[in-house]
Amino acid sequence: MNDPADDSPAPVPSLPCATIVYRLLLKRDWIDPDTGAPQPAAFYRRTRPDGQPAEEGLSVFLAEKCSVDEARFKMDRVRGVASLHVGRIRDLPEHLDVFADADDEQHAEIRGMPTPVEDLDRARRIALLLAEQARRIWPT
């Protein structure tokens, strides 16, 4: 039986392996100028000026809930959009997972990543692995 005094939100389940997510490429150095490929710089968790994490995970958008065009207009000056496959993210040896945002049906986060302040070597390794499997899908 549910306790009416317990107002804690239900846990958000991780996404199915077949899910495709989009990562917005916001800065010029996040895209290789020769090949157009997403660069590791696009896959670091942000920190606030005080060095604390800015969010719980790496922000992505759900392809099934948000078109590429919708995703690219979510923020100003988007230079590209890359796609990632949730199952392949989970296959990495880094124990990452992807969870839907309970407050925004189009948004999700890749979790299990440190910020560069927390663990620079591991953050670099994860960023490189994600960049290697990401595919730029806009502009084409």
Task: Give the structure's gist in a few sentences.
The protein is built from 3 helices and 6 strands. It is an alpha+beta fold and 140 residues long.
Main beta sheet strand tally, sense and closure: 6 strands, antiparallel
Please state roughly what percent of the residues sit in beta strands, choosing from under 5%, 5-15%, 15-25%, 25-35%, 35-45% or over 45%.
15-25%
| Structural class designation | alpha+beta
Beginning-to-end CA distance, first to last residue: 53 Å
Number of helices: 3
Mass-distribution shape: globular
Q: What string, H for helix and E for strand, traces the elements in order?
A: EEHEHEEHE
Runs with pLDDT <50, length 5+? none
By DSSP, the count of extended strands is: 6
- Helix content estimate: 10-25%
Query: Rounded to an integer, what's the Rg over CA atoms?
Result: 16 Å
Question: What structural keywords apply?
Answer:
140 residues; alpha+beta; six-stranded antiparallel sheet; 3 helices; 6 strands
Characterise the protein shown here.
The protein has helices at 68-72, 86-91, 120-133, and strands at residues 20-25, 58-62, 80-85, 97-100, 107-111, 135-138. It is an alpha+beta fold. A 6-stranded antiparallel sheet has the order 4-5-2-1-3-6. Strand 4 (97-100) and strand 5 form a beta hairpin. The relative contact order is 0.25. The model has no long low-confidence stretch (mean pLDDT 91).
